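Sample pair:
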Amino acid sequence: MTRALIVIDLQNDFCPGGALAVTGGDEIVAGVNAQMDRAGAVILTQDWHPAGHSSFASQHPGRAPYETVQMDYGAQVLWPDHCVQSSQGAAFHDGLVTDRADLILRKGFRAGIDSYSAFFENDQTTPTGLEGYLRSRGLTALDFTGLATDFCVAWSALDAARLGFDVRVILDLCRGIDLDGSMARALEEVRAAGVELV
């Protein structure tokens, strides 16, 4: 099979009770596990920030979470501290079948730049290496699930489409943040890029 399932950031900090909880984030775990059985390969991404990451509002005196600042690479939303390396918050949700993964890709580990996409840092030029892995395995069609629909899932799907992959987002296996209308904007952008929403 040439279709891969890519599960974006299904981690404790993005689930209810976490530092950057996405409403209903834990509701998709069973469905994602079931989807793994229909995939030719399974890739899990994991937000993996060092303490004091530049995207954390705590590193910008006078700024609050969810404000936007300009970084060298462009606009950056400031987040609550989350998914700090080796913390319980950075761990995958306990219900996720992680041993089914062919690859676990960690992103956001560079202190000075955030990484929403599974393919590139937020400068949209520094690669994570995922593209090369998929191409070397002959995986040309990608199904995206995970958290959050309007940030890491959407950015990953957009990059995958731009790179020439056949891309689907399985909407009922995603949950979003919807920050100031970000959900509607993200869905419009991915549709316009030729991504299939299922």
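The chain has a mean pLDDT of 97.
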